[in-house]
Structures are given as structure tokens and as C-alpha cells.
Design brief:
Bound molecules: 5-phosphoarabinonic acid
Strand order of the largest sheet: 2-1-3-4-5
Number of domains: 2
CATH topology of the largest domain: Rossmann fold
CATH architecture of the largest domain: 3-Layer(aba) Sandwich
Order of helices and strands: HHHEHEEHEHEHHHEHEHHEHHEHH
Number of helices: 16
Largest sheet: 5 strands, parallel
Strand content: 5-15%
């Protein structure tokens, strides 16, 4: 049996049936995913023009990027790059309120694709009261209106897409604003994204709808995980951030449970959860999100993966998922991109429209009527 064949997936054929995928994919999530490299190109132009207009950005003492869900993950990616290539603390805030340390020497970047997420609007107001330096990334909404009225610089990005299909429009301006205030090492800077675009364009073809299952790693990954609960383990650094992203994409696109954690922390607690997993874990699949340079650069992490695989043994299906490319930015973006594709194919295998987010819409509608 081929490695990626999954007997629990009688629907496997759909992944090579372009018309059937089109019917399920009512709002075109697969097309948006295939267009990610173009989105990044456009986002680079928008971000470059925006940061050129920032008047004398000054180095802050610390940076808080505030946002939720699809509008937070670009902040996580930027923060993980700043941890390697910058010298100022950068944290991501996913709450109504900001940490108590924020003040006039804090740069707060408020990121909300819709511009209407109440937690982000609340954090924005707190940042204004605390006298923080500010910038916003949004397609408009209330955040766009308030920031423009307040004279806060707003990087406006094209609207009309789901936030999670707008990662280029959110991550790239966020990283660019950060880089304008706190110059990052070249390998972590927006310039490195331009150099990664040819690889992303090649990935768009090889993981896109026209690449058949037998040759398509994204379709194969979706099929291998189908009918199982994926646990994404990020092996340190940006892979930890992307484990959260893969989880979120499987939740939102495939409407499926998934879990995420990061090494080495996993080795200090969750590893023991596997003791009781003999029967529980039959339908789990552990997917290690890995970097090909791990063995050379962080051999102790690679060793941890080997030992962890032995500990988990046959309690769960286990697989490695590798980033592609030679530069850090290529590897980060390719691993992000593979998860985006795989989650869309996972939606098709589940027979669900990847774009629909009824539960999130309901929650936002109910909360908008709730006083206070
Ligand atoms: O993917 C989604 O739709 C959500 O995770 C949203 O990103 C989240 O609810 C926040 O909304 P917004 O991105 O518009 O601020």
C-alpha cells in the first residue's frame, strides 16, 4: 500500500476531480490558495509604499502586535523572525487588553483584516490611551475608520477575502512596519520574501489542483490525515508558529479538530500524555513540522524528534512534513503554504466548503448584540 493511501477515505478520488472540488468550494478557497504568491507580490508593493510614507519611524523599546485568528498568525510569523533577526522584544497579543507594560515606548501594530474584531478594537483603544506609537493593518472597517480619524498610520490591504486567505496581506505589512522601526537581519526582512517568491510560485503549481494525487504532497498529506485527529508538532522556532497555523487551517477550512504543540516544551509534559494513549490514540496522526536544516543547525531537536517517535511508537500514525527551500524565508513560507493547501484538500475530503465559518459568524453576531 502506498504511504499516503488511506482506507478511511473513499472520497480520495475527489482530489483529482476538478469539477467536484469546484462544486464544494463555493467561494473559491482553492483559487485563493493557488494565488498566494501573487498576493505576496502585491502585498510587498503595498507594504513598501506604506512604510516609505511613515515619517521618521523611531526605534521602540518593545513591540506588541495585536490581533486574533487569521489576523494574528502573520504577527506570530513576524515575531518569530524578529526573535532571530532583531534586538527588540516582540510579542503577539490575542485579547481585549494589552499587557500592562505598554507605554509611549511601545510600538503597537493592530492587525484586523475586517477591521471589526472587537478584541482588536478594544486593544487599539487601550494602546491609544497608553500613548503607544501605533500602526494598523486592515482592509477597512471600524479599525480603519478610527485610525484614520486618530491620525494613526493605516496600511490598507485589499478586502473581500477570508482573513486566513489573506496571510500575505497581513504578514508582509506587519513585518515591513516592524522592519521600518527595528531593522531586522536581511534573512528575516521583507527583502527575503521577494527572493522566496519563485519557490512559492513553483509550489503553487506542484500543490495546486492540476497536480495529481500521485505527485502532489498537499493532497497526499490531506489524505493521510483524513479520518484522524492531527496533532501538529512544530520542531522549534517558526515551526511552532506554523503548527498553530496548520491547526487553525484544519479547524477553519476542514471543520475538523486538530491540536498543536511545540518542541522542546512538548518533551517536558505532553510526552507523558502518550502513556494513556494506547486506545485513545487509534485515530490520531502526529505530523512533525520540520526544517531540513534541523539536523545540522539544531541536532538536539532532531534527536528529540527521534526519541519522541519511539515513545509514541505505534500509538498513533506518525509522519514528517518538511519545509522546502534553502533560505529561512523560503522554508517558513513553503511550510505555511503546504498546510494551507492540505487543509483545503482536507475540506474536500470531508465534503465541506472550506470558506464557510458559520460558528465564528454566529459568535460575532451574538456578541455584537451583547451590551457592554
Ligand atoms: O479566519 C478567520 O476568519 C478568523 O480567524 C478571523 O481572522 C478572526 O475572527 C479575526 O477577524 P479579523 O481577521 O477580521 O480581525
Amino acid at each position: 500500500m502506498s504511504l499516503y493511501r488511506n482506507p478511511r477515505a473513499p472520497m480520495a478520488g475527489i482530489l483529482d476531480d476538478i469539477e467536484a472540488m469546484r462544486i464544494i468550494d463555493r467561494s473559491g478557497m482553492l483559487r485563493l490558495t493557488e494565488e498566494f504568491p501573487q498576493q505576496c507580490r502585491e502585498a510587498l508593493e503595498i507594504a513598501t509604499a506604506f512604510t516609505a510614507r511613515l515619517s521618521a519611524p523611531q526605534r521602540p523599546a518593545n513591540v506588541v502586535i495585536t490581533g486574533l485568528g487569521g489576523s494574528a498568525i502573520g504577527g506570530d510569523m513576524a515575531a518569530s523572525l524578529a526573535a532571530i533577526g532583531g534586538d527588540v522584544p516582540v510579542i503577539v497579543n490575542r485579547d481585549y487588553s494589552l499587557p500592562g507594560f505598554v507605554g509611549p515606548n511601545t510600538l503597537v501594530i493592530a492587525s484586523s483584516y475586517s477591521g471589526n474584531t472587537e478584541e482588536t478594537l478594544s486593544a487599539y483603544a487601550q494602546a491609544r490611551s497608553a500613548g503607544c506609537r501605533m500602526a494598523c493593518v486592515t482592509s477597512g472597517g471600524e479599525l480603519g475608520r478610527m485610525a484614520e480619524a486618530d491620525g494613526v498610520p493605516v496600511c490598507r490591504v485589499p478586502g473581500g477575502r477570508p482573513p486566513r486567505a489573506s496571510t500575505g496581506f497581513l504578514f508582509i505589512p506587519t513585518l515591513s512596519i516592524l522592519h521600518a522601526h527595528v531593522p531586522l537581519a536581511k534573512s528575516c526582512s521583507p527583502g527575503a520574501i521577494s527572493l522566496a517568491l519563485p519557490l512559492l510560485e513553483a509550489c503553487s503549481v506542484k500543490w495546486g489542483r492540476n497536480a495529481p494525487l500521485d505527485e502532489n504532497a498537499a493532497k497526499q498529506t490531506a489524505l493521510r490525515l483524513h479520518g484522524r485527529i492531527p496533532i501538529f508538532y512544530g520542531t522549534q522556532g517558526y515551526r511552532g508558529v506554523l503548527a498553530t497555523r496548520w491547526k487553525g487551517q484544519f479547524n477553519e477550512n476542514a471543520k475538523a479538530h486538530a491540536f498543536a504543540y511545540v518542541l522542546p516544551e512538548q518533551n517536558h509534559n505532553e510526552i507523558l500524555g502518550w502513556d494513556q494513549a494506547l486506545t485513545q490514540a487509534q485515530n490520531w496522526s502526529v505530523a512533525y513540522l520540520r526544517d531540513p536544516q534541523e539536523t545540522d543547525e539544531t541536532p538536539r531537536i532532531a534527536k528529540r524528534v527521534d526519541v519522541l517517535k519511539t515513545v509514541i511508537g505505534n500509538r498513533a500514525d506518525q509522519m514528517d512534513i518538511w519545509a522546502e527551500g534553502s533560505t529561512l524565508m523560503e522554508r517558513m513560507l513553503s511550510l505555511l503554504y503546504l498546510g494551507d493547501f492540505a487543509s483545503v484538500y482536507a475540506a474536500f475530503l470531508n465534503g465541506v466548503d472550506p470558506t464557510a465559518i458559520a460558528g465564528i459568524d454566529l459568535l460575532k453576531a451574538e456578541l455584537s448584540q451583547f451590551p457592554g
